[in-house]
Amino acid sequence: MSVDCTINYDLPDLHISRQLLLRNANWLMRKNNVADHNLSVLLVDDEEIAWLNKHYRKISGPTNVLSFPLSESLFSELGDIVISVETAAREAKEKKTTLHAHLTWLLTHGLLHLLGHDHERGEKEAIAMWDLEQKLITELQNTGSNPMTHLAINVDHVATVRNARGITEPDPVTAAAICELAGAAGIVVHLREDRRHIKDRDVILLRQTIKTRMNLEMGANKEIIQIALDLKPEMVTLVPEKRKELTTEGGLNVAGQKKKLAKTIAQMTKAGIAVSMFIDPESKQIQASHDIGATYVELHTGRYCDATNDSERNNEYKMIAASADEAYEMGLRVNAGHGLDYQTTSRIAAIDTIEELSIGHAIITRAVYVGLDQAVREMKKIVSEASMIV
Q1: Are 196 and 162 in contact (CB under 8 A)?
Q2: Domains of the chain, start order
Q3: Terminal Cα-to-Cα distance of the chain (whole angstroms)
Q4: Which of 190, 241, 282, 355 is catalytic?
Q5: pLDDT surpassing 60 at residue 247
Q6: Is 190 part of the annotated catalytic residue set?
Q7: Is residue 169 annotated as a catalytic residue, yes or no?
Q8: Hey, CA dihedral for 255, 237, 365, 246, is it positive or negative?
Q9: pTM for the full model?
Q10: Residue 148: alpha-carbon gap to chain centroid
Q11: Do the beta carbons of residue 327 and residue 347 sit within 8 Å?
Q12: Rg (Cα) of the chain, in Å, rounded?
């Protein structure tokens, strides 16, 4: 059967993913063995839920969620769940959680009411209902259900191998074409100030030949900015850049250089180029990226990938997942990358609010053994399967 999710409010500052809520609702219905029923989910403002409270519950004022079981249903056979997004947003802020995480809890709470659970029947029932809510939410968070995640391939290290011998092979331009044929949704290259791998010739030819989309990673350097403005890739990702680093070490300190970065964003935006900020999963960096007009953030996954035990990795994962929600709710689009490999990618790909993963070194390394086409297809399968509705 189906879940109908209707948004009935005018609150432009609150960014809600209807698709994400639909996926979560469908997952919850399958887990509770009612997937063959119809469910209505209605998102409203405080004024409307207060009206419903007055007319159907004989109480005054707004509440966070109302459940109308079959006997009282306005729309569907299983029942209706009505959530005030305004109240949910206030509660999420108080609880220091994300709006989507809190909406998922309210959705779960409302559905369990429709299935006969009632925390008002006594302490024992309240504890049992709470425990079931936590079990369902934890399993949903660990499973993920995002069919939208794309795979972009970074071909920098093809150029690294080429440059080691000072010759023309392997060619990153050819490698990019193979990656696209194998299913990559985009090609990523980092034109560094010192040109240690990707050269000017590479980015010019790639701009002419890439069939998907080009993401040019770059420092906010005057020379590189001009090259980007001339090339006009679909996206640039601003990253920190140090002369002596082997690879990018940590995210960009957007909060500490807002004026400079805002100027770069303005230049790119005027040229029709989307801008992403490569940042650590931290609230202050997300807020700063939003403040200066970025379209995307790319969350740095390095600490998650480098974790030495399960506890550390779980903590880093939770930070990435929460940051992805936080950025999305501000109106930012969310990508992620750095250090992801064939073991660590799946969990990140399952985060609902992440659109695209940027992966390079692991795929190029794998290609040494199985070929580039196969290496890309293997990674694409991991991303796709992690993103499927469970």
Answers
A1: no
A2: 3-143 (3.40.390.30), 150-387 (3.20.20.70)
A3: 16
A4: 190
A5: no
A6: yes
A7: no
A8: negative
A9: 0.72
A10: 9
A11: no
A12: 23
